[in-house]
């Protein structure tokens, strides 16, 4: 008997939790559980600490109690067939966005010659698209937070498709100016596809998947150039505008398959719809659903601008706005500078060439040649190395350091352009600079949806995208107008801007590598991953 009692003392504490509707005493109702306490055995739960940036162990994806959150379900179900389908669908939206942007560099010189437009009207045709994107980005983010990610994305895609095709029938300049502005207004909502996409991805795969989606941008740009090579000489620019809407048309057709974000449904109080979506993902992936009841954290005041400036997110929002501004300012500025530098051969000969060449008539024009299209193609291909480099480092050194490194390398390459290097070295420097600044852009697309809670995630991404368009609007005045007076001052502006952006990246208060997405603005950042079997390191002792 004594030996049996001794063995019993060695057993761990066993806890029985009541679930279901079985009858229980008043004492049970207070505690909610029965405990078998054995003298001499420690009853406190052991704290589990995560290493910095470490992923949540899989055993915590499905908690031991009878409740779970969307984050738990997404982690437990994992990456599978559903996410592959969603990747392709999101990629189509990005292809369409890239094609609508690339078409500006093809359409402008064609209309300049065909309609005998002055230079300022050609420039306005490009600027009006950015104005449309800038003015609508915040609106689309607000719609996506208020009425759902799927709703906002579908409306913006259908809007862009309609006015994109309609612009192919524009009879005069004023019509195409208005229609391209409306196309830009619709394109402002395309980044919301990243919001929807990120909310269905498990933590471990999120960064890699969002970066790989950026490959569709490069594919879309390349496809647009190849399409122009075959269409422009035979069918003309009107058919190019119409055929460029094909990815949008395909996306609109496949939209019926696209589910609403389960995170959004939970936040809007639609528990049944969220569970149905999660079951559908689990079924397609061949994975089991977590057991228990889904926790609802309903929040009515979603998509409010003031939530971006709470003490918790104020500093993050301001720093991200500057980072996104610098990304677009430097990226599009480099695209414009590349043509100027290639034509001059090197930096040192630009000023002398400017003085020697007489001012051209504003109505003088040249159609794009096959060589021009090849140059466009090679310039676009430089985006692929940027994706690969960012993909390799973002989960190793973190989001903040990846953005900082991208800006620093761009600044270094810009400063090296001060040297009178030959054409080959110039090409290498420009390609490295473009690869890293595009990589910085991609890292920002990974970080921004991760840092904001579900209640303001779409709005946060939308405002950042809108501020980026301001940078795209300003950069022609630096890369083209300032370049006329001072080449070196132009390079200093771009280099200095990116150095400040690198500092801003380091000053961001939150590193999102290896962390779950926050659901509600009423919770502390990262509370979904901490405190559910994985206590925070700075929390009090457990009793």
From TrEMBL:
Gene3D superfamilies, alphabetically?
Answer: MFS general substrate transporter like domains
Annotated coiled-coil segments of the chain: none
* Limits of the Major facilitator superfamily (MFS) profile domain: 86-513
Question: What is the membrane topology listed in the Swiss-Prot or TrEMBL record?
Answer: Multi-pass membrane protein
Q: Could you tell me which PROSITE patterns the record lists for this protein?
A: MFS, SUGAR_TRANSPORT_1
Keyword terms, alphabetized = Membrane, Transmembrane, Transmembrane helix, Transport
Span-the-membrane segments of this chain are 86-108, 120-143, 155-173, 179-198, 210-231, 237-258, 313-334, 376-395, 402-419, 425-447, 459-479, 491-510
Which Pfam families does the UniProt entry name for this protein?
MFS_1, Sugar_tr
Signal peptide (residue range)? none
Q: What subcellular locations does the record give?
A: Cytoplasmic vesicle, Secretory vesicle, Synaptic vesicle membrane
Which domain of life does the protein's organism represent? Eukaryota
**Family of this protein:** Belongs to the major facilitator superfamily.
State what protein this is by name: Synaptic vesicle 2-related protein
What is the originating organism of this protein?
Gekko japonicus (Schlegel's Japanese gecko)
